[in-house]
Amino acid sequence: MITLAVDAMGGDVGLDVTAPAAAAFLNRQPDVRLLMVGHQEQVQAALASAGAPLDRIEIVHATEVVAMDEAPQHALKNKKDSSMRIAIEQVKGGKAQAAVSAGNTGALMATARFVLKTLPHIERPAIAKFLPAQGGHLTLMLDLGANVDCSAEQLWQFAVLGSELFNALHSQKQPARVGLLNIGSEDIKGTEVVKQAFGLLKSSSLNFIGNVESNEIFSGGVDVVVADGFVGNIALKTMEGTVKFIGGAIKEELNRNWLTKLGALGALPALGGFKKRLDPRRFNGAIFLGLRGVVIKSHGGTDAVGFAYALDEAYHEAQSNSLERIAAGVAQRFATAEASDGQPQ
């Protein structure tokens, strides 16, 4: 039985989202139990209202909630009994295999890093997320905002973490294809840090396919895309904005006049499939990669459907023992590096 710890109070809405999401998730995953962390009476009432299977839920009481606009260091120092922190401590204590929160991203990262610490040899954790690509492919991209400034060695570490995670979750004939996000495919392009990272990746044992441009992220030709948090976050927000723009533009055109509305009726099956394929809720759940524990960050403004998908992400991470495989892979690559005069492998 897999156990997940849930910050029931976190996010823009809190229990109005996390409770029905927990109910829906448990109804489709019979081999999971949840530790719902939050104010006991409020959580109990919300779960009962949502019709959640209470026989597979344990409520862990927490007296505090981290606000969405709260400074990370303030939350870390002053909110030691927050639902966010106690959920992470369930992972640290071995009571849960993963923690999920829709709370303040900065506070969640700071708290997770403080409580769980990073894996050996990993200097900084990164935010990673699976994105849809052509042919039903999923592309893992990191870092998406945790580290604005990165060294070449840290970008190599992100590549190792991403490659090991992808290999753990996906069965394929070849190791994960790793690409470095850049403004061109040539190795002479990019900042000095990116060019140095290119050299480290090229000489490593990773399946490095070279630089990739942003228009290749959705091509299905790369499995792991590596960038610093500044570039990665801008790219992610641009993608989200583009999807919203396309959806709005299609809706405007279909409602332009009676003829386009009539044509829309015949296109409803295709439009429904298009909407489902690009529904951001289906890809909700970013991974804090590089920690000694699994922590999943849900979008703070998502609904119950989206939060349930974040729970799914945590479930798949726990089910695949991805953390153990990542830790073993990282240790092996660094052992090889030390045997090769410290050069990344």
UniProtKB/TrEMBL annotation:
Keywords: Cytoplasm, Lipid biosynthesis, Lipid metabolism, Phospholipid biosynthesis, Phospholipid metabolism, Transferase
UniProt GO molecular function: phosphate:acyl-[acyl carrier protein] acyltransferase activity
Localization per Swiss-Prot or TrEMBL: Cytoplasm
EC primary class: transferase
Taxonomic superkingdom: Bacteria
Catalyzed reactions per annotation: a fatty acyl-[ACP] + phosphate = an acyl phosphate + holo-[ACP]
Pathway assignment: Lipid metabolism; phospholipid metabolism
Entries under InterPro entries matching the protein: FA_synthesis (IPR003664), Phospholipid_synth_PlsX-like (IPR012281)
Main localization, broad class: cytoplasm
Pfam families membership: FA_synthesis (PF02504)
Its EC number(s): 2.3.1.274
GO terms under cellular component: cytoplasm
Gene Ontology BP, a term: phospholipid biosynthetic process
Keyword match Magnesium: no
SUPFAM superfamilies assigned to the protein according to its UniProt record, in alphabetical order: Isocitrate/Isopropylmalate dehydrogenase-like
Cross-referenced HAMAP family: PlsX
Oligomeric form and interacting partners: Homodimer. Probably interacts with PlsY.
Task of the protein: Catalyzes the reversible formation of acyl-phosphate (acyl-PO(4)) from acyl-[acyl-carrier-protein] (acyl-ACP). This enzyme utilizes acyl-ACP as fatty acyl donor, but not acyl-CoA.
Family (UniProt): Belongs to the PlsX family.
Protein name (database record): Phosphate acyltransferase
